[in-house]
Write a structure and sequence with these properties.
Length: about 525
């Protein structure tokens, strides 16, 4: 991002590194996460307002521990070390780090001295600790500014050199005054002004997209998901109908979803929309297939084939756009250059004759944004809430929510029941609380009784999970009355279902999806 202040967050492998970056962005300061191993030249080229060293699992006493060039402490740029970042700072500047008698984990009361880092904070409050090693002697020029029962150096500072460090994690919500502390570092110590705003991002992006694309045309695979929808809206604002979107309807979308995408991207953002109706093609290819991995492979392959066919028909497109977002960039470790085309954007593995068309290269207008920022941009651009707040939906869609062979009848059952579940969750205010929820058509039939008739019909499962990253997930404790309403409605309104079960398994050991 040109023309705004920036904080660099050095990643030492801590589980909360992304969280640090998100907190900073929430405070309207732009930041980037870089690996701890970047060169000094690259560090200086960022011209950053401040540096933050993240936590990490290693011990600074190990020979091959992640480290940083000590010249970084001589740049007159404020530094905040967090957990491992504090230990590294102490270690590199001549302090002592030792293994603590007890591993300290969880909530601890910390006492704070007077420091610019602790402005507007009470004398003591709860902080979140997670460490085995700790500083036992601060480097020359430093003083301890915080203590806890077990930790004489919960935080230290060298005010003259503007180097600060904390043993606890200000970025997690368990640390009561964590946000105030980070705010102090940014605004009191680094002199940040808060110039990172949604509007700034939109204006900058529009300008740079226009500059790069010129008179060219851009192709974007639209899936109806949040990222590709926001990318489409942003590109549309920049280049209008020089944007061509291809939407492949594989027939496994949720109720009314295809219609909604079509409506938004013809009426609100009138892009050049190519819809490929491939419902029959997919069903044909999947006939008789019951094994989940095979289903996924066929769907992936057909999807790429449909997208490639559509792309071949387009004469002028020379750029390919993707909805890559910042967590993908950080996690893939490729902080530089363009990421490969992601399979879950459904255009992975395009044939060479198609990729050869994109002589202009790949555009990833959202690659520096976190998901919550993507949503803010989407809202600011005028996308409807239903798209901006859409829950995650797997590329293969409803096909992997039908156990066994996929047929039109089964698709109807899963689509209608999913629509009822979504309606009831929305009515009961659960739609934003629960991260993902859906129905699954099992391949089990059970005996029931309807009226006076014995029935032998399908068991349908309801799944609802809360999670922050989808790597792990908890089953959601949906209130019984909502489950009751959902069950009654599905049984009454959807044919061929006579029993509903609720999935009470977390991930791990289960996964979110059933296939
Ligand atoms: P699992 O089932 O692996 O799901 O616990 C974790 C998250 O990923 C989604 N998911 C997919 N997303 N293409 C996608 O784009 C896929 O093939 C796919 N499979 C699972 C799933 O819905 C959940 O949000």
């Amino acid at each position: 991002m040109k023309g705004i202040q920036k904080i660099l967050v050095f990643d030492f492998g801590g589980q909360y590194t992304q969280l640090i970056a998100r907190r900073i962005r929430e405070m309207h300061v732009y930041c980037e996460v870089v690996p701890y191993s970047v060169s000094m030249d690259e560090i200086l080229s960022h011209n950053a307002q401040g540096y933050i060293f993240s936590g990490g699992p290693a011990s600074v006493l190990d020979a091959d521990a992640p480290s940083i060039n000590p010249r970084i402490f001589e740049q007159n740029v404020p530094i905040l070390g967090i957990c491992y970042g504090m230990q590294l700072t102490a270690h590199l500047l001549g302090g002592t780090v030792e293994k603590a008698a007890h591993r300290e984990y969880g909530k601890v009361t910390a006492h704070f001295n007077v420091s610019p880092l602790f402005k507007n904070m009470p004398k003591e409050s709860i902080v979140w600790m997670s460490h085995t090693f700790q500083v036992t002697k601060v480097p020359e020029g430093f003083v301890s500014i915080s203590t806890s029962q077990n930790c004489p150096f919960c935080a230290m500072q060298n005010e003259e050199k503007k180097i600060y460090a904390v043993q606890f994690h200000p970025e997690v919500t368990h640390t009561q005054m964590g946000n105030t502390l980070l705010h102090n570092f940014l605004y009191e110590i680094c002199g940040c002004v808060g110039d990172w705003t949604t509007q700034y991002f939109i204006d900058q992006s529009v300008e740079s997209i226009r500059e790069r694309v010129g008179d060219g045309h851009v192709l974007l695979g639209l899936s109806g998901g949040v990222d590709s929808s926001v990318a489409a809206a942003l590109l549309y604002k920049a280049i209008g109908n020089h944007l061509v979107c291809v939407y492949v309807d594989h027939g496994f979308m949720r109720k009314n979803e295809t219609e909604e995408v079509r409506d938004v991207f013809t009426r609100v953002f009138p892009v050049n929309l190519v819809t490929v109706d491939a419902k029959k093609r997919f069903l044909n290819e999947l006939r008789g297939i019951t094994y989940s991995e095979e289903k996924r492979k066929i769907i992936g392959k057909e999807f790429v084939a449909c997208f490639a066919d559509a792309a071949r028909q387009l004469q002028d497109v020379t750029f390919l756009a993707q909805g890559t977002i910042y967590p993908d960039v950080i996690e893939s470790g490729s902080n530089k250059g363009s990421a490969v085309i992601k399979s879950h954007h459904n255009v992975g593995g395009l044939p060479k004759d198609v990729t050869d068309k994109f002589t202009g290269g790949i555009l990833e207008p959202l690659r520096m944004l976190f998901k919550d920022e993507v949503r803010e941009v989407g809202t600011a651009l005028g996308l409807p809430n239903s798209l901006v707040w859409r829950q995650p939906f797997p590329g293969p869609g409803l096909a992997i929510r039908i156990m066994g062979e996929i047929t039109e009848d089964k698709l109807f059952i899963v689509r209608e029941s999913d629509a009822i579940l979504r309606e009831e969750f929305a009515v009961n205010g659960l739609d934003r609380k629960v991260n993902q929820y859906f129905t699954v058509l099992t391949n089990t039939q059970t005996v029931g009784v309807m009226g006076d008739e014995r029935t032998l019909e399908n068991v349908l499962a309801v799944r609802a999970v809360s999670t922050s990253d989808f790597m792990t997930a908890d089953w959601y404790k949906v209130p019984y009355d909502v489950l009751e309403k959902v069950s009654t409605r599905i049984i009454n309104e959807v044919p061929h279902v006579n029993r509903i079960v609720y999935d009470i398994t977390s991930k791990p050991p289960a996964t979110v999806e059933w296939e």
